[in-house]
Here is the input.
Amino acid sequence: TIKDAVNTGDNISIKTGAITFSGSGYVNANSGSNTVYLNAQTGAITSGTAATDVTGVSLEAIASTGIGASGNVLTTVISQLDATNTGIGDIYITNTGALELVDLNSDTYSVNNTGGNVDIEAHSPLTVTDDVLAAGNITLVAGDDTSVTTDLLTLSADVSSTGGNIVLDAGDDISQTTGTVSTTGGTITATADTENDNSGAFTQSAGAVFASNGGNITVSAYGDAAIADLDASGTTTGDEEAAPVATDGNVSVTSTHGAITDADLMIVPIDYDIIADNVILSAATGIAGDSPAEI
Here is the structure.
């Protein structure tokens, strides 16, 4: 149990059964200039009542039964995060300042929760550099800060839920430069401009994919929505005597003040930008225009 302030001019490493921040207890590695390593080998990492639980340049957090909790999130002021939960439990972390989700322990994942949900919020921006994996729901939020245009969510790796839904929120832009955002039938929802400050575009680069395996996909943006691959196709059921039945999900794309465009036109000339049972496209200034999307 960490009951008091732990300030050090060096790195901080704590490895024990469970790690509980109690009362006003916190850890601060060299005024935020050094690394923090927390390993709760048989229990959880639990937040206290201090404004910030962990301050450092980076945090590697490992637990067996959860890191933070809904209603009692682990609060941080860090630049890089690697979080792993190996048992039943959730990961709830809120960071002040720019945050990069990055693999610090060479397991290929920046966040890996085999037993529950992942909910990470940064104020802001939030950048996913290495893969995020969860058994339950995944929520990634680039939330409100004092700037109008820097609440950016950038996805440059896979984000995968094996048993839940995925929510991607940004106060301003969402940009998927590479990788696949995937569920196994759960929904995928991406919203740019959650803070309603009239700034927020959604952009997929060529090769970037949303794949729901039969779940619904919803994309909403204030500005333009540039689509490369929204795939809501599911499995096809049936036998030799019955007609095949597709279990595709629906896709909805909305740009309230911009256009919906084909992000990979002339880069991937023969492909499908949207695969779905039903498709709803709504834009203020045009859909595809001179560069038709393939559905």
Observations:
- The longest strand covers residues 35-40.
- The mean pLDDT is 90.
- DSSP finds no helices and 34 strands in the chain.
- The radius of gyration is 20 Å.
